[in-house]
Design the sequence.
């Protein structure tokens, strides 16, 4: 009896070194092999419980991963769609810029053409007026007495009528003996010529007419 009690006291002292609760120490068998078998079973239970918990957690993580994969696939599809839209927009922008450049070049070309045509028209009108003035001067009567101020003024008004640069019209009335503003345009009547306000070209023709008239009348307009 004394030996058994001493052995139990030694075992209790040994178990206390592992800091085990008294409840567990009270149910542990004294045989070491039996203790090892119980320990193996407890370890198996703990491992099985831990594995089950890990498998459950892994299942949840796999489900979350599947959801993330689906979200990633959807985002990739949206990115591809946006890339296609961006490429189409860039292509249309490039075409619009090219069309704009072509229109600007065409506008510049048309502006140059219009300016050239305006210069050509102005030059042609100027040359026509000068030629007409020369013809009028050439065809003036040679007899001084036939070149009267009224006749010279009538020729001048006819020459000025070739230049349509102003809107205000005048006419020469032989009866009144002067140039009067015309309220509205009318057809040419006998001894009445509708004209516009004098221009630099008309002044040039007027100078030539006055010079010719002065020469024809011996330095004095009749």
Sequence:
């Amino acid at each position: 009896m004394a030996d058994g009690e001493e052995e139990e006291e030694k075992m209790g002292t040994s178990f206390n070194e592992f800091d085990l609760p008294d409840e567990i120490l009270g149910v542990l068998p004294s045989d070491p092999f039996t203790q090892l078998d119980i320990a193996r079973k407890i370890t198996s239970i703990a491992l099985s419980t831990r594995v089950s918990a890990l498998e459950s957690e892994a299942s949840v993580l796999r489900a979350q991963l599947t959801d993330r994969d689906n979200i990633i696939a959807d985002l990739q599809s949206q990115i591809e769609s946006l890339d296609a839209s961006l490429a189409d927009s860039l292509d249309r922008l490039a075409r619009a810029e090219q069309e704009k450049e072509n229109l600007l070049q065409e506008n510049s070309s048309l502006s140059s053409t219009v300016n050239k045509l305006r210069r050509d028209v102005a030059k042609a009108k100027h040359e026509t007026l000068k030629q007409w003035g020369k013809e009028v001067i050439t065809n003036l009567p040679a007899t001084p007495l036939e070149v009267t101020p009224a006749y010279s003024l009538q020729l001048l008004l006819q020459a000025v009528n070739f230049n349509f640069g102003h809107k205000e019209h005048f006419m020469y009335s032989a009866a009144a003996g002067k140039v009067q503003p015309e309220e509205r345009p009318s057809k040419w009547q006998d001894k009445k010529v509708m004209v516009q306000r004098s221009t630099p070209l008309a002044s040039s023709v007027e100078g030539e007419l006055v010079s010719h008239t002065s020469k024809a009348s011996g330095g004095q307009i009749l």
